[in-house]
Specification:
19 strands, 12 helices, single chain, two-stranded antiparallel sheet
Length: about 375
């Protein structure tokens, strides 16, 4: 009997010891995470060595075998015909190949603004490669609208978006040179509010060597749970925390900052992490080096005690997206006047190149857009 009791007591003690050790490990891990969170609220986390290292020339040649399947021929033609004309900004709008509705809603609204107070604005859709059927439709769309820059020969699906953005930076540098002052990047779920951006750029533009973000994310821990969608393995990113970064909503930068990011991106290994973290976190931190903070929160800049967002978040894929976009567009239009407008008080002069409407056509998307969208839907 005593042998049985002894066995039970020994088992219970062993269980307690194991439990204490396990909880101690969990407590240590929790305390370490708390310590890291407190630390990275004050300083930026160190990047993995593989991303800090510059690639060799041979590695660069392997990484950057990219070209362009489609080019924005309208803008290219304008640059060739008017070699002395300068642009205030070029907006690079990253939209998926098959997201045609987004492109047409942009063309009908903020993408139709080509000039504000005699300052030129260029809008380019950037996209990666797609299968044959999509490619034919995208080519036909660009043949008519001439505003798509499509990148080919992407290495990996998880790094394709970052490669596309860096390739677009190369194209802007080669095509514009010093003829553009600012570059703005936007994803397909944002509505850049051009009057506010224009006013923002007209100011002192403090921290010219920085990225100006519509929204900033502070350092966040790498998701280590493989069952969650944003899981990043240790092999893909060995550090425990990601650096501060702009979200994909909207990023504003000077031309020379874009060129620095392009050059750094060329010599930095690709990483299978979210594009916003790689572009505006990793490459930005590498550009900063030991310098001062180079990330500016421009989510709201204040003038006359009123908040003025640089962009609105819009889900263009929602069934009622056209109504939402129409409402924001009407608000923006009230900030502009065109040559045909009588009321010009306190407004900015704008050149708006919206498609010509058929008489009596009251629909927000014109016949041209509907014709293309029907083809995409039948794909």
């Amino acid at each position: 009997m005593w042998t049985g009791v002894y066995g039970i007591v020994r088992g219970a003690i062993l269980g307690i010891v194991v439990s204490v050790i396990a909880n101690r490990e969990r407590l240590y891990c929790f305390q370490r995470q708390e310590s890291e969170a407190e630390l990275y609220s004050r300083v930026e986390p160190k990047l993995p060595d593989i991303l800090l290292r510059n690639l060799t020339d041979a590695e660069i040649r392997t990484k950057t075998k990219t070209g362009f399947l489609l080019r924005p021929w309208k803008l290219t033609k304008e640059l060739e015909q008017k070699p002395n004309e300068k642009y205030l900004m070029v907006i690079l709008c990253h939209v998926g190949v098959q997201e045609a509705k987004k492109r047409f809603l942009v063309r009908e609204t903020w993408g139709s603004i080509s000039q504000v107070d005699n300052k030129k604005i260029g809008v380019i859709f950037i996209a990666g490669f797609q299968h044959t059927r999509s490619q034919k439709l995208l080519s036909a769309e660009n043949e008519e609208h001439g505003d798509i820059l499509q990148v080919s020969s992407l290495v990996n699906e998880k790094t394709a978006e970052a490669q596309t953005m860096l390739a677009a930076f190369h194209w802007v540098t080669d095509s514009f040179g010093s003829r553009v002052n600012f570059v703005v990047t936007s994803n397909g779920n944002s509505f850049p509010f051009i009057p506010n951006i224009f006013e923002y750029l007209k100011g002192d533009f403090a921290s010219p060597e920085s990225l100006h973000c519509a929204l900033i994310s502070n350092p966040i821990p790498r998701q280590r749970n493989p069952t969650l969608s944003r899981y990043i393995s240790q092999a893909d990113y060995c550090a425990s925390y990601f650096p501060s970064h702009c979200t994909q909503t909207l990023v504003v930068m000077r031309r020379d900052v874009m060129q620095k990011l392009r050059d750094i991106g060329k010599r930095t290994a690709l990483a299978k992490i979210p594009t916003e973290i790689y572009m505006w976190g990793v490459l930005r931190e590498k550009m900063r080096g030991n310098g001062t903070k180079n990330l500016v929160d421009s989510s709201n800049f204040i003038k006359d005690d009123s908040k003025k967002p640089l962009a609105y978040a819009v889900s263009y894929s929602r069934y009622d997206s056209a109504d939402i976009v129409r409402e924001i567009w009407a608000n923006m239009r009230n900030r502009f006047f065109t040559a045909s407008d009588a009321d010009r008080t306190g407004k900015l002069e704008a050149v708006i190149n919206r498609p010509v409407r058929e008489k009596g056509d009251n629909n927000f998307l014109g016949k041209d857009a509907k014709r293309f969208l029907r083809k995409w839907m039948m794909m």
